[in-house]
Amino acid sequence: MKYLDEYRDEKIARQIVAELARRATRPWVLMEICGGQTHTLVRYGIDEMLPAGIEMIHGPGCPVCVTSLETIDKAIEIASRPGVTLISYGDMLRVPGSHTDLFHVKANGGDVRIVYSPSEALKFARANHSRQVVFFAVGFETTAPANAMAVWQACREGLTNFSMLASHVLVPPAIRALLSSPRNRVQGFVGPGHVCTVMGYREYEELIRDFHIPIVVGGFEPLDLLEAILMLVVQLEEGRAEVENQYVRSVTCEGNLLAQRVLAEVFEVCDRKWRGIGGIPESGLRLREGYADFDADRIFGTEGVTAEEPAECISAEVLQGLKKPTDCSAFGTRCTPENPLGAPMVSSEGACAAYYRYRRHDVALTQIR
Amino acid sequence: MCLAIPGKVLTSEVHNGIRIGRVQFGGITRETCLDFVPEAAVGDYVIVHVGFAISRVDREEAERSYRVLESMGLLQGELESELESSPPER
To answer: pLDDT digit string (tens) for B6-39?
Structure first.
């Protein structure tokens, strides 16, 4: 496929790695923020191709993984009510809540459906007036405009049976939280290419001023990531800290202004709790007061639901890049994608699930030896 | 979740005030909202996420940046053939 296959050329990849080896004079610790980038790194073994000393740690950019336990519990409670159809992106169904998951709600007769696009949820609401249709809206800035558009359309059409359980998260406040931690090891970030396609990269300049750390907005194919890593290492070796854009075929400095406008019309910034990380100020999006009639949290009275996260898995450390999935004693045994203990084992973009899919045999071999 | 892939715009029509197109990804086509990319025309490539195009692929930028990558690969190829044709140093 055009704009995909040519970015997987092995010969060019090896040349970039050779250039990295020439440029790097000391070890560097880098983080890719986005779970899609983690998936590519692990799938193609890019992190293992890198010259010794260049370490990639995996960031918290998997919305399925960071959606708070109480939000999952809210979705489960709403989905369990009669007359409700809860519609979600597929991965959310297997995320463990405090006592059960959405998949079990569905198995027990709840009407839980999976869609590829929020437009499909809207279509279902239009065609089924007797059902209260709730769209479970998670995601980063990439997904927020699409979800905002669904609410905006529902409002315009005067739909009274469509609402949204909105739990959006934002990337820059998460980077700020990671860099502010005394345990931070990250010296440079591969920025999230699709988040920046929507938002542009002006807001990352503030992070650079405050923390003097390079950020290179990167794409999602192997050559994109290798080039972004090379650009980061060159900056670090030269003592520079700037925002650079590797993913020029999709990202501009200003981003997509129309998508930003719809997002700002429907959502406003709020404090948000991240699973495994805790509360981060101004790191989420919620529906604006003007769209309160579409806020499932208010309609179903679930605003007071709270939950304590269990301590059985190390996902908190994995999401902050402090530990690798394979450092967990439950990895691949008591915790698998079929029976996940923590959210990073659920989504294909979760670091644990990516390691399970592409690395578990390596782990098994090490254990046998 | 932030997975978004490039596809080719095959059609473009307005339904209920929303611009919808059929976009082709390899062998499959999907209905896609084109409202965020008014600059994208039939024949253009767009990056699509959850049924919404979020950017038009900038063909010139893509070609320019790919040439940089490609030149690295070519360099490697030349280096290898040079090494193969010259006798090893002792």
So the answer is: 999 999 999 888 999 999 998 899 999 999 999 9
Q: B33-58 pLDDT, tens per residue?
A: 999 999 999 999 999 999 999 999 98
Higher-confidence position of A309 and A279: A279
Please give the single-letter amino acid code of residue A243: V
Q: What is the 3-state secondary structure (H, E, C) of A170-234?
A: CHHHHHHHHHHCCCCCCCEEEEEHHHHHHHCCCHHHHHHHHHCCCEEEECCCHHHHHHHHHHHHH
Fold of B5-84: SH3 type barrels. (2.30.30)
Which among B35, B42, B45 has a CA at the least distance from the CA of B11? Answer: B42
CB B53 within 8 A of CB A146: no
Please check whether residue A16 is in contact with residue A230, taking contact to mean a CB–CB distance below 8 angstroms: yes
Alpha-carbon distance of A54 to A48, in angstroms, equals 10
Is A117 in contact with B25 (Cβ distance < 8 A)?
A: no
Alpha-helix runs per DSSP H in A53-117: 63-66, 69-79, 102-107
Instruction: Show the tokens assigned to A28.
Output: 């560097």
C-alpha torsion sign, points A60, A64, A65, A66: positive
First-residue to last-residue Cα distance in chain A: 41
Contact A143 B50 (CB under 8 A): yes
Q: How far apart are CA A242 and CA A215, in angstroms?
A: 6
| Whole-angstrom distance, CA of residue A242 vs CA of residue A245 | 10
To the nearest whole angstrom, how far is the Cα of A195 from the nearest Cα of chain B? Answer: 7
Q: What is the pLDDT of residue A115?
A: 94
Q: Which residues is A139 bridged to in the sheet?
A: A168
Set of chain A residues whose Cβ sits within 8 Å of the Cβ of B14: none
Cβ neighbours, 10 Å, residue A187: 17
> Residue for token digits 């045994």?
A333
Which domains does chain A show, CATH number per domain?
1-312 (3.40.50.11740), 315-368 (no CATH)
In the beta sheet, which residues pair with residue B48? B5, B53
- Contact yes or no for B19/B12 (Cβ under 8 A): yes
Interface of B with A in 56-75 (CB under 8 A): 57-58, 61-62, 64-66, 69-70, 72-73, 75
The gap from C-alpha A121 to its chain's centroid, in whole angstroms, comes to 21
User: Which helix or strand (DSSP H or E) is residue A29 part of?
Assistant: strand A28-34
Phi, psi of A44 (to 5 degrees): -95, 0
